[in-house]
Amino acid sequence: MKQVMTRMERTYSLQRRYINDNASVSSLKNEWPFLFNDQCMLQHYALLVEKKDAKANFLENLEVRGKELFRTLEDPAKQRSLKVAVIHKLLEINIKCVNDRENIKSNALVDLISCYFKEPISDLYHCQPQDCLVSDLCKDAPPQPFIVVIGTSIYNASKFHVYIESQLHYSTTTLAEALAYQFCSFYVLNIMYPSKCLATYEFIQRYFAGINPEGTRSSMSRKRAAVHPKVLGLVRLLSG
């Protein structure tokens, strides 16, 4: 695998040229099959965003900054400015996490973020039961990078699969690892964020991945739009 990664690093510019020519995911997979290997995908992403330890930083920020986000939104002084739905979501998460607070609570992080922005979590992931047929795992999944959670809910999940255009590309036992691969896929493959979940993805990009361009990646247009005002609002709340 080391030789493969070395070769993929040396041909990085060729891969970017192919991707930037609006190549489809299927043609890209035929031309550069190793790109979809998790190590190669993350290596490509690190080169693209010029962050050597991109994955490690992303995972660390999910843990550290995720806890900061929970602490801030659970602060009674901050809750005065929160919507009722967000407070209810915090209560639901805390009830579910009584027996295994930290591990399960970290899995609920994205749920909380999407609730704050009033965006559907169904555009980031959906749950499938343990006995679900393989052919049904990606049923109704959108074409963009998408997580299929194996379990009746995010709180009792046993495995996480990342699908792109209804094809399985990565599997892991942690949501954090699945989010890392999913997020990197958006950047590496030049895929725009879905409009229904734009604020959630942009917040993940800015707060956890540490990527802060002047605009955002919108599926409504391939041009950069202004920074999402709700994202700026939450970042200010967390830094206040």
Give the beta-strand count.
6
Largest sheet: 4 strands, mixed
Summed over residues and divided by their number, the pLDDT gives a mean of 86
Spatial strand arrangement across the major sheet: 1-2-3-4
Quickly list its features.
240 residues, four-stranded mixed β-sheet, 52% helix
Structural commentary:
- This protein has helices at residues 2-10, 12-20, 25-31, 38-49, 54-74, 76-79, 84-96, 101-107, 109-116, 175-188, 198-208, 229-239; strands spanning 125-128, 146-150, 159-164, 167-172, 215-216, 225-226.
- Residues 219-224 have low confidence and may be disordered.
- It is α+β, with helices and mostly antiparallel strands and 240 residues long.
- The protein contains 12 helices and 6 strands.
- The strands form 2 sheets. Strands 1-2-3-4 form a 4-stranded mixed β-sheet, with helices on one face. A two-stranded antiparallel sheet has the order 5-6.
- The protein has one domain (55-239).
- The longest helix has 21 residues, at 54-74.
List the helices and strands and how they pair.
Layout: H1 2-10, H2 12-20, H3 25-31, H4 38-49, H5 54-74, H6 76-79, H7 84-96, H8 101-107, H9 109-116, E1 125-128, E2 146-150, E3 159-164, E4 167-172, H10 175-188, H11 198-208, E5 215-216, E6 225-226, H12 229-239
Parallel strand pairs: 1-2
Antiparallel strand pairs: 2-3, 3-4, 5-6
What's the gist of this structure?
This protein has 12 helices and 6 strands. The chain is α+β, with helices and mostly antiparallel strands and about 240 residues long.
